[in-house]
Amino acid sequence: MRRVVDCGDAEAAIASAASAAEPGSPALAAPGAAFVTLHVAGQLRGCIGTVERRRPLWQVVAEMAAAAATRDPRFPPLDAADLGALTVEISVLTPDVVIGGPDDIEIGRHGLDVRRGGVRGLLLPQVAVEHSLNGERFLAQTCRKAGLAADAWRDAGTELRAFEADVFGDDAA
Questions:
Q1: pLDDT by residue (tens digit) across 22-57?
Q2: Which CATH code fits 10-93?
Q3: Can you give the pLDDT at residue 165?
Q4: Does domain 97-164 correspond to CATH entry 3.60.40.10?
Q5: Residues facing 119 on adjacent strands
Q6: How far is CA 131 from CA 78, 110, 126, 128, 173, in A?
Q7: Backbone torsions φ then ψ of 19, nearest 5 degrees
């Protein structure tokens, strides 16, 4: 589901959401995992999330939105000038499952989480579609995101996991 949201004053909206009373929806009150992706004028400006399911989903989304806007180390924090061209995308993650390799990946449906030792890389399902990746290239890019060699997914010591996501947010302006 996609919808256009008036971002208004982002800081006030985030603070309001973070301090709001718990919603009546059982799905929003249940522990959840989510990522929030921000684009300004079509360019990525923040993406932060968690795979941990320790807090209610509504709190996770509010916290990840604030973090994506202000704490993604790849980008400067958003400011008021960015708000007119800001789009927000929320990806609510399903629990992940261990997979064996590229034959277990359905592009457009699965996101990937690659783990080896103390490092991990995660790419959302929409990344493979946006960059026209096949299963092997999607695994390679996820390994690179983890700081591993592109072919580390072939090593038995690398854990490969797939998950799905319900994705919704702003329509492009």
A1: 677 899 999 999 999 999 999 999 999 999 999 999
A2: 3.30.700.20
A3: 97
A4: no
A5: 116
A6: 25, 14, 9, 5, 21
A7: -100, 0
Q: Helices H, strands E: what count in the chain?
A: 5, 8
- In this structure, is the dihedral angle defined by the CA atoms of residues 147, 152, 158 and 162, taken in order, positive or negative? positive
Binned at pLDDT 50, 70 and 90, residue 8 comes out as very low
Q: Reduced to 3 states, what is the DSSP secondary structure of residue 130?
A: helix
Q: Which residue has the tokens 């790849």?
A: 74
**Per-residue tokens: 1:** 């589901």
d(C-alpha 129, C-alpha 151), whole Å: 20
Return the higher-pLDDT residue of 88 and 17: 88
What does the block give as tokens for 74? 């790849």
Task: Convert the pLDDT of each residue in 113-154 to its tens digit.
Answer: 999 999 999 999 999 999 999 999 999 999 999 999 999 999
Domain boundaries, the chain: 10-93, 97-164
Q: Listing from the earlier edge strand, what are the strands of the sheet with 111-116? A: 97-98, 159-163, 111-116, 119-123
